[in-house]
Amino acid sequence: MTLSIEDIFRQTAAAPGGGPLYLKLRRSIEDAVRSGLINPGDALPSERDIAATADVSRVTVRKAVQNLVADGILIQRHGSGTFVAPRIERVEQPLSSLTSFTEDMARRGRTMTNQWLDRGLYDPSPQEAVVLGLGAGEKVARVNRLRMADGNPLAIERASLAASILPDPDGIRASLYAHLEKTGNRPVRAIQRIAAVNLGGQDADLLDVAAGAASLKIERTSYLASGRIVEFTRSIYRGDAYDFVAELRI
Question: How far is residue 229's CA from residue 210's CA, in Å, rounded to a whole number?
Fold first, then answer.
């Protein structure tokens, strides 16, 4: 006999073993997700309904749900409710080659799309001026976008380039590197710095994960063959979607 999601919740209080009720309820909800009773994108019953069905307090429900949100199994959308998080196919990204996100996704047979957050010419910040070696009066081109594969948000990229290198940021279509290649300004090497960070609210909303979720922050400084710095990019990658791999040799 196939159990319904309500049946699984009813078994929470009667589940054998000790431990806090919220952990028992967490396991019940997780079982419902793993067994396919509720699928990625499906809404969870309301906090009130779960509490009544499982015969637990709403505080217990809230704690169990927050626990699952923190682990990326559920997501909460303000004003909409709690949903099963989409299953994201992990991407294994080598650190030994300088490629664009568009090229990486095409090589894997995945459909890449952008959500443009900002692109235009601006007065540079002090950091941009120093890193890019900009002189007085020079502008900086900013290309900020949400990168998605098969409709799933994977990364936020915020790229800065000298306006003399990229005078027409609005002309970029899919790939920044393909656009730079047309003018002979595609970088040939880069230095990357990777750090683990917890997502703030705005970036978490863009990546469709809970605020505070684990992510990878990557700063990339890219160079032309002449040695000139051509690109300074700060990216945030979903921690549950990316594995960065480096080959080490003696």
Answer: 35
d(CA 17, CA 104): 47
Q: Is the model's pTM score more than 0.85?
A: no
The length of the chain, given as a count of residues: 250
Q: pLDDT tens for residues 185-241?
A: 999 999 999 999 998 889 988 988 878 888 989 999 999 999 999 999 999 988 877
Q: Which ranges constitute the DSSP H helices of the chain?
A: 5-10, 21-34, 47-54, 58-70, 101-107, 126-132, 176-181, 201-207
* C-alpha distances in Å from residue 45, one per residue of 6, 10, 48, 74, 167: 9, 13, 8, 12, 51
Collect all residues with Cβ–Cβ distance below 8 Å to 17 and sequence separation of at least 6: 24
Matching residue, tokens 């009066």: 137
Say how many CA atoms lie within 13 Å of 61 toward its Cβ.
18
Beta bridge partners of 162: 140
The 3-class SS string of 118-168 reads EEEEECCCHHHHHHHCCCCCCCEEEEEEEEEECCEEEEEEEEEEECCCCCC
